[in-house]
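Before the break, one more example. Copy the sequence into your notebook; we will annotate it together after we see the structure.
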Amino acid sequence: MKKIIETNPEFASEVVLSIPYAYWLHENNMLEKVAICKGMRPFYWFCDNVEERFDFRSVDCVQALKDIPNKWLHNSEAGGGRPGVIDYAQWSCPPYREHFRNNLFDHLKPYIVVNNIFNIEPNGQYVRFFDIKNLYEIFNYLTKARYNVIYKRPENTEFALDQNEAQTLNSSFKLHANVEGIGEITDYQLVDMMDNVYNINELNYKEWDYSTLNLKVFAEADGFISVHGGGVQLCACYGKPVIIYTNTGKGLRPGYIENEDSYIKKLSNAPVYHVKDPIANWEKNGGRDYKSLMKVVQDTFIGCTAEALLRAY
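Here is what the structure looks like once it is written out:
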């Protein structure tokens, strides 16, 4: 008997729990239809019957994942309750890279995607993001190493929102900093000021919806640097190196990323490098640990190889 799935969880849960279940059903000729959030159709390209029904995402896992075997992103009983390990019995990540490969970004290759967020946390704080200093150091290193950079930081106007994203959109906070000799700038202005760094929202492919643009851009990337949250799960679906920066949340638990059968690794077997910078240590350490993050960036993306440069020309 074929199944109909209705699902509208947070984006991370959809990428890790909902879509792999739908794809597993598809592989076993058991998928009839999916009813999902508006704008998510490209993620379900394998399904012929897609209804974009939901205007909003829900953090209520019981309801939003009622048709999905895995009800919780961070662990499952089948995984022995270990952090980041879920039940893979009915689970298969779609081949995003193979399906969305294209030659439309050859003029930007080789490039690294820097994936950022700026959303309010349930406790009312803004902490889970790359700040302006982080971004400058990352952009500066990668471009000197002969990479281009594509920067992604949603404005929360591009897709169906969950409660935290909606609250952020309605707030007056913005990601900015006062830079000596320049004044106050935002992250988007920093991108505009730097050579070989590009805002994904300003790439000239307006005929595509936001999801398709992301899926195609990610498919041609040489690697990813991402905040833990806000789509790092999608970054891990492409089989390319992923650096994950975690400063708060469940990702700080021992083994969450490092377990060999963590969902982050199972999504595509991508090489994953984890940088932990708990906010609890910031007061003692004088703020964010930029050095640890940049060491991993430098060790992972040493510089463009001859092969990578040849692909670009």
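The mean pLDDT is 90. The chain is about 30% helix and 15% strand. Try to locate both features in your own notes.
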